[in-house]
Write a structure and sequence with these properties.
Mean pLDDT: 93
Distance between the termini: 58 Å
CATH architecture: Alpha-Beta Complex
CATH superfamily: DHBP synthase
Strand content: 15-25%
Order of helices and strands: HEHEEHEHHEEHEEHEEEH
CATH topology: DHBP synthase
Shape: globular
Number of domains: 1
Oligomer: single chain
Low-confidence stretches: 1-13
Number of strands: 11
């Protein structure tokens, strides 16, 4: 393929509606179009406190199917969620037992994903057949504001085609996914860094599923009230 042809393809792929927002203080008006897209079953790319993610309504099967299509990913892989705050998790996903609520109070907003029992009205594909869903409150004002405005947690799987590297750069997202998503919420480059620590909180004791930004020893100490 010639460089000219590649440039033309990149320009076409990046022809996605882009909404520029303030990363630390996004206005409700700036997010209105993204919220409308999500409510009608569309897919957006949005910033989180690590990388850009694909946001959609996890209670709509058609929206979740579009997330998988955008990534070129087959069903059977669970999709993580982000929420506006712990109250939204309690109201829309699951109540948190006292020790798990203590983890949320200590590490949210931040890079701790808690696996909890999925509610019955969540799109089945979100859980990957496990009956559990991972959710966290991210330390990024834009992601939280979008969840608050939509009135629901949102999917937040990385904004990349399966097999390609996830990105913190909105321009990379536009080039790779511009023809597969409806809106790119651009708050500049995200912090990147280590992924969230994933903890299965469905049993009597927490179980480490994936090591990440928060040390397991900190989580255990907090869970047992010994920190």
């Amino acid at each position: 393929m010639s460089l000219a042809t590649q440039d033309t393809m990149d320009a076409w792929r990046s022809n996605v509606q882009r909404i520029i927002v303030d990363a630390t203080s996004p206005s409700a008006r700036a997010l209105e179009e993204a919220v409308r897209v999500i409510r009608r079953g569309g897919v957006i790319a949005m910033p989180t406190d690590t990388l850009y993610g694909l946001g959609a309504d996890p209670f709509r099967s058609d929206a979740v199917a579009r997330v998988f299509a955008a990534k070129g990913r087959s069903a059977g892989h669970a999709l993580p969620l982000v929420a506006a705050d712990a109250a939204q998790v309690r109201d829309r996903i699951a109540s948190l037992p006292p020790q798990v609520a203590r983890l949320a109070a200590r590490f949210w907003p931040g890079p701790l994903t808690l696996l909890v029992a999925a509610p019955s009205d969540l799109a089945a594909a979100v859980t990957g057949g496990t009956g559990k869903v991972g959710v966290r409150v991210p330390a990024h004002a834009v992601a939280r504001a979008l969840c608050a405005a939509c009135g629901t947690p949102l999917t937040a799987t990385s904004a990349n085609i399966t097999g390609a590297a996830p990105s913190a750069d909105p321009d990379d997202v536009a080039r790779s996914l511009g023809n597969r998503i409806d809106v790119l919420v651009d708050a500049g480059t995200t912090p990147g860094g280590s992924p969230s620590t994933i903890v299965d909180a469905t049993g009597d004791e927490p179980v480490l599923v994936r090591a990440g930004a928060i040390e397991w020893e900190e989580i255990e100490a907090c869970f047992h009230g010994t920190e």
